[in-house]
Amino acid sequence: MPMELDKFDRGILAILQRDARRSAELIGTAIGLSASAVQRRIARLREEGVIAAEVAIVDSRAIGRPLTLIVDVEVERERSELLVSLKQWIAAEPAIQEAWYVTGEGDYVLIVTARDVDGYDALMRKLIAENANVRRFQTRVALGTLKRGQLVPVEPTSE
């Protein structure tokens, strides 16, 4: 059962999603709680898994991975042992930023970063070589980024 979130929890989450380094004092001032109350609530949100991670977002271009590709992957058979193997391969591959199991023509959508087309081509040859269950894949190259992030809308409660 999902954790009940009140207006203070939701306020904390809205602020932390934009700036996880914001101090408890500043968050408390913004939402009307003491710093210690904010710290307790943040600890509870972490323990309950509402806050899944706190990470630094790195600009892929700044570290030499300017190419973003959206890849639709179609599998040959949906046998569980073959799917488990593919899922493990995807999870272990650092160049794959996101992976979604989807409906439609393809079975998975991958978001991949690469240094260049040759690097991407090598990754996809490795995917095919190490996963015989992959029937085909289709690649779209991102020409620009309109929006990117993990921000989840936190609607206020009716309190």
UniProtKB/TrEMBL annotation:
Q: Which GO terms describe its cellular component?
A: cytosol
Please list the GO terms describing molecular function. sequence-specific DNA binding
- Superkingdom of origin: Bacteria
Instruction: List UniProt keywords, sorted A-Z.
Output: DNA-binding, Transcription, Transcription regulation
Which SMART domains has this protein been placed in? HTH_ASNC
Looking at the record, the residues that make up the HTH asnC-type domain are: 5-66
Q: Name one Pfam family in it.
A: AsnC_trans_reg
Instruction: List GO BP terms, alphabetically.
Output: response to amino acid
What is the protein's given name? Lrp/AsnC family transcriptional regulator
Q: Please name the source species.
A: Rhodanobacter denitrificans
Its organism's taxonomic lineage begins at: Bacteria, Pseudomonadati, Pseudomonadota, Gammaproteobacteria, Lysobacterales
